[in-house]
Protein 1
Amino acid sequence: MINGTSSPLLSVDFDYVRQMMFDYSSVVLEAGKEYLVEARLLSIVQEREMNSLGELVEALRKKSSNKLRQEVVEAMLTNETSFFRDVKPFESIREFVLPDLISKRSAERTLNIWCAACSGGQEIYSFLMLIKEYFPILEGWKLKVIASDLSLRMLEKAKRGIYSQLEVNRGLPAAYLVKYFEKVGLEWEIHENFRKSIEFLSVNLGSSWPALPVMDLILMRNVMIYFDVKTKKRVLNQAAELMNSDGYLFLGGVESTINLADQFEIVSWKQSSCYRPNRV
Amino acid sequence: MKALIVDDSRAMRLIIGKILTEIGFEIIEAKDGAEAMKYFDGTGQVDLALVDWNLPNMNGLELITYIRSNPLNNDICVIMCTSETEKSRVTDALSAGANEYVMKPFTRDVMLAKLELLGMVRS
C-alpha cells in the first residue's frame, strides 16, 4: 500500500500493467515488482486526483485515453543515464573504434551513428563531445547522428539539452562543462551546434523500426536488460541487419550477444567489449 | 592511496571521507588551506586532494595555486569540491590547476564518477 491511496495494488491490476508495458514497450516487469509500479505511478494517481492505483488501472482498461497510457508507460520506464557512463566504452571508441572507422571510410567520408536508447541525451552528447575533442578530422565529414528513445518525455529532454547541476556533476569532465555548456539559471545548456547535429526519433526497439540508414556505429547500452530473450534476439538480429559488416555495436556492461545472436563477434579493447556483425 | 580532504565543515569532511574510505583511500583531513599546505612539500604525501573553495586563512583557489607552484606535486590529483557553481568559478579552478570540479551538493555516484574520470577508481 502507498501513501495517498486507499488500497494496495491488486494482483489483477499488476498483471494488467505488466501486460500493457510489454505490449507498448517490450519491457518485462517481473513478478514481485509491485512495489515498483506503486512507487512510479503514485504521482500520476495524485496528479489526477484519483483515489487509488486501482482507479488508475481501471481508467487504463477503458482505453479512453492514449495520453494516460503513454504517461503510465513512460513513468514505468527506467531512464538511468549519465555523461560518459562507465568511461571504458568511450575510451575504446576514442582509441580504437573511431580510428578504425575513419580509416575504413576515408574515401566516402561518411559515418552513420545511432544512439538507440538515448534517454535524456547524455550518452549521445558525450559521444559528440568526444568527437569534438579528439577527431577534428571529422568536421569535414558527413556525419548522420540519430538519437532515439521510446519515451517522448526523455526525447524532449534530450532535444532541449538542458541539465541540472546534479546531472552535469555526474561523469562530465569539468573541462567539457566550461567548454560546451552555458549556465542558464540553475541549469546548464549544451551548445546549440551539438543539439542541431542530432536527428531525434521516437523508436520502440521491441517493435518494428522506422527506415534508418545503414549504421557504422550503434550505441544500444543498458536497454536490453529490460527485454525477454525473444525480444533481445529480435532486436539484435535487426541491429545486425542494419549495420555495415565492419560496424560496431555497443551494449551495456551486463549485456551481450552470446546465445542471442550468433552472427556477432566480440571485439575486445583493453577492458571494454563491443560487437561486430560477422557476415561474409 | 592517500586522500587529503580540505574543508572547514567537519560534516563535509566526514561525508567525503566515508565515500573515499569505502573505496580504499586512507584519509587525512585539514580544516583550512594553511593547515593543508604542509602536505604539498613535494614528497608525495597524498595522491588526491579534495579542496573546498571557501576556507579560512587560505582559500581553496589559493591552495591549488600553491600546490601547482611546485612541479613535484604534478602527480597529485586535485578536485575542487565546493558550493560555488558559476561557470567562471569552474574556469578559474581549472586554470589554477584543479583536475576536476565537484559542485555541492553531490551524491556518492557523482564523486565516484569523477574519480573514475581521473582513473582513480574502476566502475
Protein 2
Amino acid sequence: MKVFETRGLKKSFQEFSALKGVDIHVNEGELFGLIGPNGSGKTTFFNCVTGTLKCSGGNVFFRGKDITNKGPDAIYKMGIGRTFQLIEMFPRMTVLDNMLLAIQESQGSMFGRLLTMNEDGNVKRALDLLGFLKISHLRDEYSKNLSYGQQKLLDFGMVLMTNPKLILLDEPTCGVEAEMRQELMNYIRDLNKQGHTIIVIEHNMDVVMNLCTRIAVLDAGEKIAEGTPEEIQNNAQVIEAYFGTEEDEEC
Amino acid sequence: MIEQLLIKGLSLGAIYAMIAIGFCLLWQSSRLVNFAEGEFVTIPAFLMVFFYSVLKLPFAPAIIAAIIVSAFLLGFVMKKTLVDALIARGNTPFVVTTIALGFLVRDSLTVFATPEALHFPSMIPQTPLQFGGAMFSSLDLWNIFVAAVVIVCLHLFIRKTKQGKALQAVAQNREAAGIMGIDVQKMILMAFVINAVLVAFSASLAAPIYMVKYDMGNELGLKAFYAAIIGGFNQVKGALLGGLLVGLIEIFTAAYISTQYKSGFVLIVLIAVILFKPEGILGTKEQL
Amino acid sequence: MDKINQGMRWQKMVAGSLCGLVLLILPSVIFKSQYFLYLSSLACIYMIVSCGLNITMGYAGQISLAQAGFLGIGAYTGALLGSTLGFWVTLPLGGLIAFVIGLGLGFPSLRVKTHFLAMVTIGFTVIVYLVLMNEQQWTGGPYGIFNIKKPSIGPFAFTSPAAYHIVVAVVTFILLFFAFWALNSPWGRAFKAIRENEGRAEMLGVSIRNYKLMAFAIGAGYAGVAGGLIGPLFGYIDPTMFALGFSFLFLLMVVVGGLGRFEGALLGAIIVAILPETLRFAEQYYPIIFALAAVLIMIFMPKGSVSFVDWVYKKLTGKEELQLTK
C-alpha cells in the first residue's frame, strides 16, 4: 500500500529549476533510499514535501490525502517527521525541552496546553528515547553545548517523539564517525522493523546499499532510475551520473 | 482652492520627503531603522538658533555651520558610537536604543536649552502670492524649490559619482558589494552623513513653520517614517513620493474632512499599505 | 520529572507565590506616606504592563508600541462604565476588550517585519489618542474624566491609598501568577522555540501565527487591565496619560530590565516607577539620566539590568543565573 507519493513534483527558484517533475512512491513499511550527486535536488525534495518550500507544481500525497503546499506545522502534525542535514535545533533550550517541544504541539488543543502542568508522560517518553540513544545524561544540558554527533542523535530523538508514520532522514550518517555510523544504521533498521516507513537521503553508498530495500536516483532535478540496490548498482545511467563523477565525502 | 491646497501639500510634503529619503538611505546601507530621526531634525534646528541668535552669526553662515556640525554629530559620531556598537546585533536593539536616544535628546534640550518654542526666521521674506485664484505663501514655493534642488543634487551624486554608485551597490546587496571590494562600513558612514545633511536642510525649512522646540521632531519624524513606508522603504524615489503624498493627504484631509483627524487619515493609508503592499507603493520585495 | 521533583515543584510554586503576594501587599502595611503608597501602586501597574509586553516582545519577539493605546482603552472602559457596571466588572472587561482588539490588530499585522509592526502599533496608539482627544461627547476630550471612584466590596470601600494598594497588589499578583504559569507551561516552551528558531519550530508543529497572536493579545489584555487600575489611583484620566511617549517608556522598561526574562521585566517596571524618587537629588536631570542609562544598558548590558542581579546571585550562590521560568 502506498503511504507516500509525489506526482510531477516541481520546484523552481526564479530561472533555476531544482525539481523537474519528480514521481516517487513509497509503500508502507519500506526503507526507501533517495540518492544523487550534490545539487541534484534531494534536500529540496524534502523541503517541498514537508511544506518548508512551496512547490511550483505537482502534488504530494500522504496516506491518500493531498498535502501539497500545506503549512509545515500541519504536515508535521499529520505524521511526517524529519531530520536535518545541517543541524537545526533550539540552542538555548535544554535537550529535554527540545524533545518535549517535538511532541507537545501534536497533542490536545492550544488552550489545553496552556493548562498542562503535568507532562510526565511526555517526559518519560523523552527520557526513554534519550536512553535508547544513550544521551540521557545530557537531558538538562543546553543543546548548543552538545557535540556534533550528540546533536545528530538529539535530532534523531526529536523525530521519534511523535512516532511519525513517515520519517524523512536527511543524511543521517554524514559527519558521524564510523563507529557511530554503524550504530545509527542499526537504529534506522530497528525503527523500520518496528513498522516505521522511512525515506533516507544518503551520500554514503555503503549505507544506502546496505540499508534500503528500494532506491531512487535523482540527477539535476530528475529521477533517472528506481529499483532495488542491485538494479541501481548495475544501471548504466546511474553509473554515468553518479559513480562517474568523483566521489567526494563531504555533504 | 485646489491649486492652493496642492502647493501647500507639496510644500509640507517636501520637508517630509527629505527626512524620509534619509530614512531610506540608512535602511538601504545598514538595514537599521533610526527611531530618533525626528530628534535628528530638532538638533540642527537648535544649532541654527544657537549660531544665529546666540553667537550672532549672519544668517547664511549660521545655517551652513549648523549643517556642518550636524553632519559631524549625527553622521560621523553617530556611526562611530551607536551604529558600530549595535549593528552586529541587528535592527531591534538599534530601534530600542534610538528610542532611548530620542528621549535623551528631548529631555536634554528641555533642561539644558529651553522648554520654550524659539523663533527662527525663514530664508526668504514671507509674502503672500496670488496665482490665478489661488493664494499661497512665498515660503511654500521656496520649500518646494529647496527640497527639489537638494534631492536633484543627491540624485546626481548617487547616479554619477563613484562613491554614489558604490552606495547603490551596497543598497542592492551588501554581501556582494563587500566581496566586490566596496568598503561597506564607509558607505554606511556616508549614508549617515548624507542623512544628517538632509535632516539639517529639512530643519532649516521646518524651523520657521513649526517654531524651534524640543519636541518639534516628534511629529516630523513620525510623518517621515509613514512617508518612507507608504512610498517604499528601499527606494529613494519611493520615499520622495511617500513624503509628497503624506503632505498632500494631510492638507486635503484637513481642508475637506476634519482638522483633528488629519494625522489619523494618514495612518489609515499607512496601515492599508502595510497590510496590502508592505513593500510600499514603489518599493521592491526584499528577501530577508 | 520524577515524582519527588514534581512534589518539590508544587511546594516551591506555592511558597514562591505566597512570598510574591506578601511582597506586593507589604507597602500597604509599612508605608504611611501617601506618596510612597502611590509609588508602590504605580510600580505594580507598571509591572503588569511590562510583564505583558515582555511576553509579546521578550518571548514572542515582536516589538509593540501599542501599549499606551491599550492602557487608554482599559482606563476609559473603567471610567465610562465604572459607575453603572462597577469596578469589579469593568476591570476584567477593559482587559478583555483590549485583548480582543489586540487579536484584531495582531491578526493582519503579525506577518510584517519588525519595524513595520512597530509602525502599525505606533499608528494604533496615535489613533486611540486622537479619538480620546476629539470625541468629546464620550471621552471629555482634552479635559478627561474626573471623580473616578475607588472600588468597594459591599460596605467596605477601598478609599484610602493603603486599602487601594491592596486591590492593585492582588490584581497584579493574579496577572503575574498567570503569566508565570503560562511561561512554565508548554506555551512558554513554544514561545522560546519561536524566538530561537522560528522555521524549525514550525516544522515541529508549532503554529507560529497562533502563538504570536496570543502573545500579542496577552500583552494587550494586560495593558488593558493596568489601565483600569489607573483611573481610581489618580481619581481622573485624560488623553495625555496615554500618549505615544508612554508606549516608548514601557518598551524601555522591559528592555532596561531584561528582555525575555520574567524577573527582568518586573525589575524594569520597579526601576522606572521608583527611580524618580531615588534620584530626587537629580531633580530635572532625572529623565536625562534614565534615557542615558537606557542607551548605555542597550550597548553594554544587552541582557538588561537583570544581568547585574545574576552577577550578585552568582557571587552569593555560585550558580549560573537566577531563573524563575524555565
Protein 3
Amino acid sequence: MSEANAPIAILEVKDLVKSYGKVRAVDGISFAVREGSCFGILGPNGAGKTTAIEVIETIHDPDSGSILYRGEPVSRSFKENIGIQFQDTSLQEFLTVRETLQLFSKLYPSPRPMDEIIAACSLEEFIDRDNRKLSGGQRQRMLLGIALVNDPDLLFLDEPTTGLDPHARRNFWRLIQGIKAQGKTVILTTHYMDEAEFLCDDIIVMDHGHIIESGRPRELLLKHFGEAVIRLPEAAFPTGKAPGQGAALGCPAETEDGFVSLSCSDTDATLRELVSMGVPLGGISVERRNLDDLFLKLTGSGLD
Amino acid sequence: MKKFWAVFVARNLEFFRDRSTLIFNLVLPIALIFGFAFAFPGGGGTTYKIGTIGEAPAIGSPMDSAFLHYKYLQFVPYSSLEAPLDRLAHHQIDMVIDFTKGEYYVNESSANGYVLERMLAPSSFGLAVAGPPQGGSAFAKKTVSGAPIRYVDWFIPGVIGINILFGSLSGVGFVIVRYRRNGVLKRFKATPLRAFEFVGAQVMSRFFIVAFISVLIFTGTDLVLHFRMAGSWALLALVNALAILCMIALGLVFASRIKSEEVAGGIMNLITWPMMILSGVFFSLEGTPAAMQAASRAFPITYYIEASRAIMLDGAGLAQIAGDLGALAAMTAVFLAAAAFLFKWE
C-alpha cells in the first residue's frame, strides 16, 4: 500500500520512554495504530506492556517521547475520547451495576445512553445487582461497560480476560468483536495468544521494554514458521538425513525428542514430496504454530 | 458540578449502605455518653479544686497554712474573679480564694464546698474562716449559688468532638488511602474528573455524614439526658461546622500521599490519641502542667471543645469564642492548602 493511501493512524507513539528508578520499563518504543483496528500488545510479565499502555492513557507521564492522537499531541480532552479497562481495578462499594455506570456516565460531557451500554455489554441480567456480587465474567463486562460510557473512539483493554473461564472469555471476545464492528479502535494487552490471534489485526511483541517484533499475526507466523509444521518420527528418515532432506524440500528441519519438525510454506507440496521420496508417513502430524511459539522463538522463553 | 454531585452521591450511598460502619459510627459514641452519664452522675473529679486569685502566702510566712499544702487539693490560679465564680456557681470548682482581697467563696449547695470550708475552720488550720491565727485580717466568706453541671453536660462536647475527629480522619483520610491502594483513585484519574472535584466531593460528602451523625447522636441522647444549653444553637452549629471542616482538612493532609492502610492507621493513632488525651475531652486541663496546656493548643479539637463548652455551659457569645473560631479557621486554611499541595492520585 502506498504511503498516500495508508489508513490514517488514530494513535502514534514515538520513542516512548518510562523509567522507574534505574529500571527502564518502556525503552524507546514506537508504533502506530490504525483507526478501526484491534491492536495487540503482547509480552510476558514485566515486559513493560502495562506501563506502556498506562503512559499512553496519560495515567503516568512519560520520561520522553510523544503520543499523537489523530495527529495531535494528546491534551486534556484526550480522556474524553478514550475508554479504559484496567488490568486490576476496584470500584466504590455498595453501588449497583446501574449506579456504578451512572456515576461514571456523569463524569463525561456526552455520555452514551445507558440502554445502549447495557445492551452492548449484555448487562441486563445483573444490572441492579451490587457490584461486589458479580462473577468474574460479569465483572469484566461491567468494567467494559464503564469503559464505554463516554462512547470512546479508542478503547484500551489491559488483559481483560485474565482469570476468566473459557466460556466467559469467548463471550467477552464476542463483545469486543461487536465493539470493533461499530468502528471503534481497540488496543489490547493479553497473555493469551489465541485471544490475540482471534481479535487482533496488528500486534507488537514486547520484552524488557522493547518491541522485538511487530506486524499482522498471520504474516508474522508465516514469516517465522511457514504455513505449518509437519512432524514425523525421526526414524522415518535415514540416520542423520533429516536436515538434508528438509533442505531439499525447502523446509528448515529441527530434531527434538525423537521427532523431526519441518517448517513448510506449502503443506500440500511438502506432503507430496515426502511421499515421492518414500518417507513413511506413520505417526505424522501437521501443526500450525501460534504466537506462543513465535514468542518462544523470539526470546527463548515462554509467555507466562 | 455534575461530576462533583455524582461523586458526592456515590460516596454517601457507599457510607449509608455499609450498615456495620453506620452502626459503629452511631452506637459507640452513644454508648460512651450513656456510660459516662451513669458512671458520673455528678462531677467527674475526685479531688477538690480551688480557684485562686493573687499570690498564695509564701511557705513559712505568717499567712501560710497547712491547708495550702494538703494532698488532693488542687489550686488553680485565675487572673480575675469572673471565670472562677462562674465555675463555682456550676460546681465545676469547689471554692475560690481571693488572696488579694482576703475573701473566699463557696457555693452553698456544694457538698465539696462545705467540706473544704470545714477544713478552713480555725480549730484545724491557720488560714481560717475567722482569720489567720497569728494576727492578719480575717478572710471574709462570700457565697454564690447555682445548680451543678453534670459530668455528662461537661462531657458531651468531648464525645461529639471525638466523633468529629474519628469520623473525619477515618472517613476522609482512611477512605482516600483505601481508594488509592485498591485502584479506585486510578480509575477516576482515567476520567475527565479533576483532583479538586474529587476531593471537594469527598469533603462535602464527609461533612454531610459527620454533621448528620453528630446531630443524631446529640438529639438522640438529649431526649433522655436533657443537656444543659445556655447559649446559642446557631453558634454551636457554626463551631461544629468549622470543626468538621478542620478535621476533614487534617484527614486530607495525611491522605494526600499515603498508599498503605497500615501506615494510615499508625499515623491516625499518632494524631488521635494525643488529641484525645491532651484536648480536655475526658478531664479539664485546668491546673495541668503548663507544657501539657501548651501542647493542647496545637490540636484543633481543643478549640472545638473549649468553644462548645463555653456556649453550652456558660452561654458564651461570638465575642467570647472568637479566638477559638479563629484558631479553627486558621488551621482549616493551613490544612487545606497543605492537602492541595501534597495530593496525588497515586
